[in-house]
Amino acid sequence: MDQHSLFQISASGMAVEKLRLDVTTANLANMHSTAGAGKALYRPLQVISRAVPLTFSEQMGQIASGGAEVASIAPQDVAPRMVFEPAHPDADAKGFVAYPGVNQTSEMMTMLSALRAYEANVVAMNAAKTMASRALEIGGQS
User: Fold this and answer.
1) For the residues 17-21, what does the mean pLDDT come to?
2) Do residues 41 and 13 touch, judged by C-beta distance below 8 A?
3) pLDDT at position 36, please?
4) Total-model pTM
């Protein structure tokens, strides 16, 4: 496996986790937003990632590749959170206001998981960089 492939794999994982953090942040930021007159209510989003599909030669070990990629960013199918606030300007006839169905606990767990995965990819990339550096040092001393 060449060093470039190692860096590509870690970089693709870091990109996916960065996007996961961005989407989680957007969900948390819009947690208390309401739908104004004639506007749609914010729907929490979810990043769906997958492993990069390998070709036949890659699967046979001739070429090292792989990594992760974003398959899609899909809105979650969750019901809005209804809160009784009759004085709110966006309240319905019964006094309820619809807020996005963002689960704060779940979003925080997603954020922690994405942070740890990002850190793991950074460690893997640094290890590959150290190995490449050491290989150059060994090759230069002969």
Assistant:
1) 96
2) no
3) 77
4) 0.81
**Cα gap 114→105, rounded to integer Å:** 14
- Say what the pLDDT of residue 61 is: 60
Of 71, 70, 99, 73, the closest CA to residue 84 belongs to 99
Phi, psi dihedral angles at 10 (to 5 degrees): -65, -40
**DSSP, residue by residue, 15-75:** HHHHHHHHHHHHHHHTTT----TT-PPP--EEEEEEEPPPPHHHHTTSS----EEEEEEEE
The percent of the chain in helix, strand and coil, each rounded to the nearest 5, is 50, 15, 35
**Strands 45-51 and 81-84, how do they pair?**
unpaired
Enter the DSSP assignment of 99: E
Burial class (CB in 10 A: 0-12, 13-18, 19+), 19: middle
